[in-house]
Amino acid sequence: MGRRILNDALRSMVNAEKRGKAMVELKPISNVISSFLHIMKHRGYIKDFQVYDPHRVGRITVELQGRINDCKALTYRQDLKAKDIEAYRLNTLPTHQWGYVVITTPDGVFGS
User: Fold this and answer.
1) Are strands 108-111 and 102-105 parallel, antiparallel or unpaired?
2) Element holding 110 (H helix, E strand)
3) What is the C-alpha separation between 1 and 88, in angstroms, rounded?
4) In sequence order, which residues have a C-beta less than 8 Å from that of residue 4 and are 6 or more positions away?
5) In this structure, what DSSP letter does residue 82 have?
6) In whole angstroms, what is the distance from residue 74 CA to residue 103 CA?
7) 106 preceded by cis ω (within 30°)?
8) Is 102 buried (19+), middle (13-18) or exposed (0-12) by CB count in 10 A?
9) What is the pLDDT of residue 19?
10) What GO annotations for molecular function exist for this entry (predicted)?
11) What is the pLDDT of residues 3-36, one digit of tens each?
């Protein structure tokens, strides 16, 4: 069975935040993780991140900001139409004012 590298990366960031660390190193990496970190940086959850050697095994160093309470990856595939994304977001998040849903598609990563 393959590794769930996005879930491993998210757990590493949450655990580092709980321990009060300022930085965390993520290995292995993928383009999905990099795209997800762009969204997290845009939303203000992380300060910055740096990708080292992306064409090999590589690593990403993330500067944490102390704003991540919890972050999870749903590992099962769900087929959603574009018109159903908002209803899915409302059903997935615990409240309407807390959190974001990030969806990976064949065209890239989408954050709502």
Assistant:
1) antiparallel
2) strand 108-111
3) 28
4) 73, 75
5) G
6) 10
7) no
8) middle
9) 95
10) structural constituent of ribosome
11) 688 889 999 999 999 999 999 999 988 888 999 9
Residue 105's DSSP bridge partners are 108
d(CA 44, CA 26): 19
Q: Are 14 and 38 in contact (CB under 8 A)?
A: no
Q: Which two tokens stand for residue 18?
A: 């709980």
Domains of the chain: 5-111 (3.30.1370.30)
Amino acid symbol at 74: L
Residues in Cβ contact with 90 at an 8 Å cutoff, skipping those fewer than 6 apart: 96
pLDDT in tens, 32-59: 899 999 999 998 999 999 999 877 778 9
Q: Contact 29/59 with Cβ under 8 angstroms? A: yes
Q: 3-class SS at 61?
A: strand
Q: Give pLDDT tens digits for 87-107.
A: 887 887 766 666 777 778 778
